[in-house]
Structure formats: structure tokens, C-alpha cells
Amino acid sequence: MYRKIIEYLESWKESKYRKPLILQGARQVGKTYSILEFGRIHYENVAYFNFETSPKLNETFEEDISPDYLVPILSHIAGQTIIREKTLIVFDEVQLCERALTSLKYFCEDAPDYHIIAAGSLLGVAVNRKSFSFPVGKVDMKTLYPLDIEEFMLALGEEELVERIRNCFSTNTPMPSALHDIAIQLYRQYLVVGGMPECVTQFVETKDYILIRHTQDTILESYLNDMSKYNNLNEIKKTRLVYNNITVQLSRKNTRFQYKLVKKGGRASELENAIEWLTLSGIVSQIYRVEQIKKPLENYRNIDAFKIYVSDLGLLCAKKNLAPNDILYMVDELNDFKGGMAENYVEVQLSINGYKTYYWESERGAEIDFIIQRGYKIIPIEVKAADNTKAKSLRVYMETFKPAYAIKVSAKNFGFEDGKKIVPLYAVFCI
Fold first, then answer.
1. Helix (H, G, I), strand (E, B) or coil at 120
2. Does 296 sit behind a cis peptide bond, omega within 30 degrees of 0 on the bond before it?
3. Is ATP-binding among this UniProt entry's keywords (predicted)?
4. Longest Cα pair distance anywhere in the chain, in angstroms?
5. Which of 32, 61, 121, 424 is most buried as measured by Cβ atoms within 10 A of its Cβ?
6. Mean pLDDT, range 182-190, rounded to an integer
């Protein structure tokens, strides 16, 4: 299965400024598979160490974490010689051994010729609760997300369709209507299946939505277990409350996160730690409202006004217990949820492409779903779940701030009109 992360890893390997790499992301997004596949292709051998399945590994790092001490021992444990530049060293579930995390500093300083990648499902949380120093400035860091819709299409053998989508995006030329309809259906399938590699593999091989939903339920259960395993006892209940409530908030016309909807009388002081845990673990993303459209946008965010989206669309639909056919045919009963689901989808694709997203709201209630900086320009993005693209809020924004152009994402075909770039939902990966 093609993953874009491989191209990043290839660049990392060849960089003269290469440092030990930390690859983080939510559980089961494919970190281990991607690293091992990369190692198999580009190195003579891979020395793989998993701190979850081999807890005794921790003892190796208790006394001395210098490369001179560690490498011979690790070679013995792996049963193969670790050779500079020819062996890929992999520390998996590294959040379970903070001393191993700290050792990356010394590999960077004293033995930079060793190629080493550390992976962790809850690394953000572990970093926040460290007992030993984090190797700040001594590591490269990269986040792996679930498959985006382009990777999903490629997994289904739609290379020619992907190429045509990219061409239409760059030229603002409408897709042939038959291909547009096929791509819209693929988008809906992506909403059901999501981007978790195991689910995508099952869809490619079986098209069995019942099997996929079972896998999604298992992943959701593993997230709940993580909340109990890695979280403070006092925060477990609050974290689950927040996580279970996200789909409720996405069903509202105003998808801004409201504490009072989590529990009666809920306040920021009570729930903010739970939200931070979910964000750091990669299970959700949090985007803030910007008060002014100026660079840098981060300077003008309102920390008290934000939205929360989940990291995978398939898990969102599973958590909501939505019937696959209801999504595939976009039945009217889903009308209250369609907008929030489309927003969540766009946020996932933009995050995968490396954008820091915000949203904007006027004093009179006009709202733009996403504000991004694309190149040197601040660009508004309006999202509609269907092909009805009337957007009063976008008109208000454009009259107020006069952006170079705006992006309207909907089920409508490609085009460009009145300073607005029309992008079909299936083509958001091109932004």
C-alpha cells in the first residue's frame, strides 16, 4: 500500500542534516508498517526493538545510554550486526521507555552516522509527562496520519483518476460528469472506510462494510483502553466524556465546541486537560477562531473559541454508528450531520497536507469554516456537504478582507467564478 510518508523518509535518509527521527501519530495509522517497509527497501538490514512487546528492553537503557554502550548490546538482542549507515535502527512504542527517548540526543551528538527512527502512538502524551529530558533540538519529528483520500484512491487502483483530478484542480477545468460522479462515490466510500490502513486493506480485498466496521470498533476500543492505561485516574472519565461528545457537537449547526454540551455545568477548568490529552495523542485535532485576518494567524487566535474534529472519518462514522448505506446515498436523515462530517473530512485532509487551520466568525455571525496560509496568501475555505454552494458568509469575508481568492469546497464540479476556486470534496487533497 502506497504511503506518502515513504517519500519523506527517503529525503530524511539522504539529508546531510539528518537527525534521529521521531515518527508520531495516533494508534494504528501505519507507523510501524511504513518504517519497516522503508527499511526493507533502503537498508541492508533493520534492527527492530519494540518496548511494548519486550518490556525487558527497558533494562538495557537504565544505566548507560551512550551509543558506544548501547549498540553492541542492541546488536546482540537483535541477533544481527548494527552497521553505521547500512542498518536502520527502529525503536517502536518508544513512549514506554523515556530513557530510550533521551538516548536519541546522544546518537545525534556522538554517533550521527547511525540511522535511527523512533515511533510512538502516544508520544505527545508521554513527552508531556516525562521524567527524563526530551531531546529538544536533537531529533527530527514527523507526524503520520491515516491515509488521505488520494492514498485511498491509489489503493483502489485509481491512478488515472487521481492524475485527472490533479490536472482539473490546477486548470480549474470541470471533470467529465461520469468521472465526477465516480469520484464523488469514492469520497463517500472514504467517509465510511476512513484511512486506517487495516480498514482500507479490508475494503480493497473484500468490500465488506460489516468487517470494516468491526475493525473500526476494535480500534475505538483500543483508544478507550489507552485512555485508561496512559491517563491520570482523575481524568479518565472526563476524557471519555469529551471524546464521546465530539460527534454530538458536530451534529449541531454551530460546530464550535461547547463545554456545557459535554456535561451540565461543564467548564474549561474542568475539561481542558481531557481535551489536551486527546489532542496530544493524535486522536483529535483542535482548531481555534482567529479574531483578525493578519499574519501570523497564530497571534490572533482566541484560545476560548475552538472546534474539535476526530482524526479519521471512518472512526467518526463508526462512533456515530452510522449505517454505511446511509452515507453512501447521503440520505435525508443525515442532514443535521452532513455539514459537520464534511468539515471534519476537510480538516483531516488539510492537516495531512501540513496546514495549520483556523476558522473565522464575524460579529454578526458570518462564519468561514477554515482559514489557511497557502504560500504567502491567507485563504478562506468554505465547506458545503452538497452541491448547493450559496455562501453568504464567504461573500461577507471577501468584501471585508479582499483575499487574493477563496476556495469553495462542495459536491460541485471544478471551476473558478467571482474570485472563488470551486473544488469538489474528493479533490481537497490537492490544496
1. strand
2. yes
3. yes
4. 67
5. 121
6. 98
Number of residues assigned to the chain:
431
Cα separation of 382 and 368, whole Å? Answer: 6
What is d(CA 249, CA 53) in angstroms, rounded to the nearest whole number?
37
Mean pLDDT of 233-241: 92
Mean local confidence (pLDDT), 267-272: 94
Residue tagged 494504528 (cell numbers)? 28
Confidence band of 72 (pLDDT split at 50, 70, 90) = very high
**Residues 6 or more apart whose Cβ sits within 8 Å of residue 425:** 184, 187, 342, 345, 346, 385, 409, 410, 411
Instruction: Locate 12 and state its grid cell.
Output: 530524511
- Residues with Cβ < 8 Å from 399, sequence gap 6 or more? none
Main-chain phi, psi angles of 321, to 5 degrees = 55, 45
Q: Taking 70 as the threshold, does the pLDDT of residue 389 lie above it?
A: no
Q: Using the predicted structure, report yes or no on whether residue 353 has a pLDDT greater than 70.
A: yes
Element housing 221 (H / E): helix 209-230
Residue type, 401: F
Beta bridge partners of 306: 288
CB atoms within 10 A of CB 94: 27
Q: Select from 3.40.50.300, 3.60.70.12, 3.30.420.40, 3.90.1150.10 the CATH code of 5-143.
A: 3.40.50.300
Report DSSP state, residue 96.
G
List, as one string, the DSSP characters of 16-74.
Answer: TT---EEEE-STTSSHHHHHHHHHHHHSSEEEEEETTT-TTHHHHTSS---HHHHHHHH
Sign of CA dihedral 200, 189, 346, 321: negative
For residue 329, what is its C-alpha cell?
Answer: 446515498
The residue whose grid cell reads 471551476 is: 415
* Least confident piece of the model among 5-9, 67-71, 127-131: 127-131
Query: Which grid cell sits at 271?
Result: 475539561
Residue type at 56 in one-letter notation = K
Give the Å distances, CA to CA, from 206 to 156, 161, 333. 12, 22, 28
Question: Which residues make beta-bridge pairs with 284?
Answer: 310
User: Would you kindly state where each structural domain of the chain is located, as residue ranges?
Assistant: 5-143, 150-430
Contact (CB, 8 A) for 340 and 246? no
Sign of CA dihedral 357, 363, 365, 366: negative
